[in-house]
């Protein structure tokens, strides 16, 4: 049974995740930076550095949300970045942000399903996702799609929450994630389920070596795992 935001809702995870992000879209960026004390910005920069090893010209940002990862990846000077997401609300916020920054010629945001990508095989130099693959209804299918649309030799970079394992950081982190974060998330976003779902989905996610094993099963080679900030998040990468 996969973790879902709205436990009394009979619709599938994909539909519920879209509904959740539509609900919190207006507060998402603020909450991201506030609840992580801004360290999420550093995490994205580190992930983009790894993507830069391939000098990509065409990038696909999966579960792009409001476009922060795509905007950060412009530091690599690609010709274009395509971002897709299932939440119309998040994309609307992202499109407004990109318009204000005059980046519409570099970043194109589209409504799309990460597990059924509307792109031909071998299209992109790099596929990437920040805090998005955890929300896939079918993780293997979503990662397989990211592999399919990559050119041979292309790189995948996934930034995702993980579970600290060392004392005492593990205990402090778990207390914050389970008791403090949901309270502030509910107050600010007005959606209680969204920030209860967050720690539950992180707990259920196959992080670390488990995730590396899935990347290998999908077909990725030269897989690597980089732990960040005492294990709060991790960067995973591999080549097609």
Automatic annotation (TrEMBL):
It comes from Adhaeribacter rhizoryzae. GO terms for molecular function: demethylmenaquinone methyltransferase activity. InterPro entries: SAM-dependent_MTases_sf, UbiE/COQ5_MeTrFase, UbiE/COQ5_MeTrFase_CS. It catalyses: a 2-demethylmenaquinol + S-adenosyl-L-methionine = a menaquinol + S-adenosyl-L-homocysteine + H(+). HAMAP family: MenG_UbiE_methyltr. It comes from the Bacteria. The keyword Cell membrane does not apply. Methyltransferase required for the conversion of demethylmenaquinol (DMKH2) to menaquinol (MKH2). Pfam families: Ubie_methyltran. S-adenosyl-L-methionine binds at residues 66, 85, 113-114. Keywords: Menaquinone biosynthesis, Methyltransferase, S-adenosyl-L-methionine, Transferase. Belongs to the class I-like SAM-binding methyltransferase superfamily. MenG/UbiE family. SUPFAM superfamilies: S-adenosyl-L-methionine-dependent methyltransferases. GO terms for biological process: menaquinone biosynthetic process; methylation. Its EC number is 2.1.1.163. CDD domains: AdoMet_MTases. This is Demethylmenaquinone methyltransferase. Pathway: Quinol/quinone metabolism; menaquinone biosynthesis; menaquinol from 1,4-dihydroxy-2-naphthoate: step 2/2.
């Amino acid at each position: 049974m996969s973790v879902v935001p709205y436990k009394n809702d009979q619709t599938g995870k994909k539909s519920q995740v879209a509904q959740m992000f539509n609900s919190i879209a207006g507060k998402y960026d603020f909450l991201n930076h506030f609840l992580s004390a801004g360290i999420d910005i550093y995490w994205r920069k580190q992930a983009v550095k790894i993507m830069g090893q391939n000098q990509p010209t065409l990038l696909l940002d999966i579960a792009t949300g409001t476009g922060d990862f795509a905007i950060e990846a412009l530091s690599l000077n690609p010709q274009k970045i395509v971002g897709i997401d299932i939440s119309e609300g998040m994309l609307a916020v992202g499109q407004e942000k990109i318009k204000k920054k005059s980046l519409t010629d570099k970043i194109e945001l589209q409504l799309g399903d990460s597990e059924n990508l509307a792109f031909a095989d071998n299209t992109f130099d790099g596929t990437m996702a920040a805090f998005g693959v955890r929300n896939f209804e079918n993780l293997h299918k979503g990662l397989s799609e990211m592999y399919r649309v990559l050119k041979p030799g292309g790189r995948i970079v996934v930034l995702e929450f993980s579970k600290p394992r060392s004392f005492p950081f593990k205990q402090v982190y778990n207390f914050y994630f389970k008791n403090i974060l949901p309270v502030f998330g509910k107050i600010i976003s007005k959606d209680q389920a969204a920030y209860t779902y967050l720690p539950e989905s992180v707990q259920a996610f196959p992080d670390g070596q488990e995730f590396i094993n899935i990347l290998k099963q999908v077909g990725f080679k030269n897989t690597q795992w980089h732990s960040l900030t005492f294990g709060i998040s991790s960067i995973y990468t591999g080549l097609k």
